[in-house]
Design a protein that fits this description.
The radius of gyration is 26 Å and the shape is globular. The chain is an alpha+beta fold. The longest helix is centred in the first third of the chain and has 30 residues. Strands 2-1-5-4-3-6 form a six-stranded mixed sheet, sandwiched between helices. 30% of the residues are buried. Helix content is 52%, strand content 10%. It contains 18 helices and six strands.
Length: 442
């Protein structure tokens, strides 16, 4: 990898865009502040392990720092070419090896193509999330039940009023009051349902959203990091105003619990210890004398961390979901993407390591590290509580021996899957899109 003389400037620009102080980045990367200052002013070249640690702390690919945005844009163009449908007119294929030439000659068209490809991927993820929500969200089921129940009450009361020949005035007034109350309940339920379905991942969580989803959206807007809890930060009190602004009391309680856990994680596992562990949660837990799930949480919620994270309890309920690009984490715990996590639940203390491949025009591979721990807060006579966590890291695309995973059966395009429970709606979408392209001659 060729490293340009302006790599330090890109480090500084990225750090400032994230709102990180120089001292924070130095701690996260395991280098001194003075050395980082020299790097940022291009007075020391950066490469090797230091470049990797800086890129990880800043949440970017090392190549984006070493070679600049141009290299990243070439990668975007190559990804767009690889995602092209196989039935292009005339059987032509994009010239992947000429992406750099295309970027140099037509930078405007290259930016447009990369932006449209990114938007298409976002829409694919949105479709998958909506299908998942429609199929498995218990809060949506409750909202639909409320609407249907109110509609049935309105219909029943209206039928009595329409068919009753002689109804005493007192009873007629009661039926009218019931009809008005049920109509208002139906209207409120319909409005809440529409607001819930219209909510996007980047929007403010509506009142009907699940409390956990509301808390995770708040954490996502902060870049999955609570910088106030790091040494030199403003502390837990500085987060209280944001937490108090969440819509539901349950979401506020979840957020306060996460802040308390984060503060304990930072105190037990400082940034230098995280760097010394090399990102291995078992090593970090051993160094800190902490639980392995807490170590995973500390690694995944560190500044600029590249790892995704899923935490679940013994019932399989997902209590925290930090997504990773291309790895779709289902809202409910019924997906093969979570197999290593559930395997860990059955063997507390035993590390589970697997490599998985998520489907797509260009399948992506990930390294999955899962481990569970058992707790007995009430001693021998009490119940055993199990908690499991799974770190998700990108793996080389050519890495061998990957499990064929998917988000949920409803949106997974793998037709020949022995674990499939129901047909995929994505196959129908793909067939309809192909027929539409042929109909318009594209």
């Amino acid at each position: 990898m060729a490293i340009s003389a302006l790599a330090g400037s890109r480090v500084r620009e990225r750090r400032q865009s994230l709102g990180m102080r120089q001292a924070e980045l130095a701690r996260a990367a395991g280098i001194s502040g003075s050395y980082l200052n020299l790097i940022e002013h291009n007075r020391r070249r950066v490469g090797g392990e230091v470049l990797d640690r800086l890129a990880r702390a800043l949440g970017v690919e090392p190549r984006a720092i070493a070679e600049g945005a141009g290299a990243a844009r070439v990668d975007d163009l190559r990804a767009a070419a690889a995602d092209a449908p196989p039935d292009l007119p005339g059987g032509v294929r994009p010239e992947i090896d000429r992406a750099e030439e295309f970027l140099g000659r037509f930078p405007g068209w290259a930016e447009l193509l990369a932006a449209q490809h990114g938007r298409a991927r976002e829409l694919e993820r949105a479709v998958g999330a909506l299908v998942d929500r429609l199929g498995q969200d218990p809060h949506l089921s409750a909202a639909l039940h409320e609407v249907l129940s109110a509609a049935a009450s309105v219909r029943s009361t209206a039928a009595i009023l329409a068919e009753g020949e002689e109804i005493e005035p007192v009873w007629r007034a009661r039926f009218h009051a019931n009809l008005q109350a049920d109509s208002e309940r139906l209207s409120a339920g319909a409005e809440a349902l529409v607001a819930y379905l219209d909510a996007s991942e980047g929007a403010e969580a509506p009142a009907a959203a699940a409390p956990q989803e509301e808390m995770e959206r708040w954490l996502s807007r902060r870049g999955w990091h609570l910088v106030e809890l790091e040494p030199g930060g403003a502390g837990r009190a500085a987060l209280e105003a944001e937490v108090a602004g969440l819509a539901s009391g349950a979401a506020r309680a979840l957020a306060r619990g996460l802040v308390a856990e984060g503060a304990a994680d930072v105190a037990a596992m400082p940034a230098a210890m995280v760097a010394a562990s090399g990102g291995d949660p078992l090593r970090l837990a051993a160094l800190a004398g902490a639980g392995v799930v807490a170590a995973m949480r500390r690694i995944a919620l560190a500044p600029g961390a590249a790892e995704g994270l899923v935490i679940c309890d013994a019932a399989g309920a997902l209590t925290l979901r930090k997504p990773l690009e291309g790895f779709v984490i289902p809202r409910a715990g019924s997906a093969c993407a979570l197999w290593p996590l559930f395997a860990a639940l059955t063997r507390p203390g035993a590390p589970i390591q697997a490599r998985g491949e998520m489907p797509g025009p260009v399948p992506r591979r990930y390294d999955l590290r899962a481990c569970a721990e058992a707790r007995h807060p009430e001693g021998f006579g009490g119940p055993e509580l199990r908690l499991a966590g799974m770190l998700i890291l990108p793996a080389p695309d050519e890495a061998p021996g990957a499990l064929r995973l998917g988000s949920t059966c409803r949106v997974c395009p793998r037709d020949a899957c022995p674990a499939r429970r129901e047909p995929s709606v994505m196959s129908e979408f793909a067939l309809a899109a192909q027929q539409a392209r042929r109909a318009i001659g594209f």
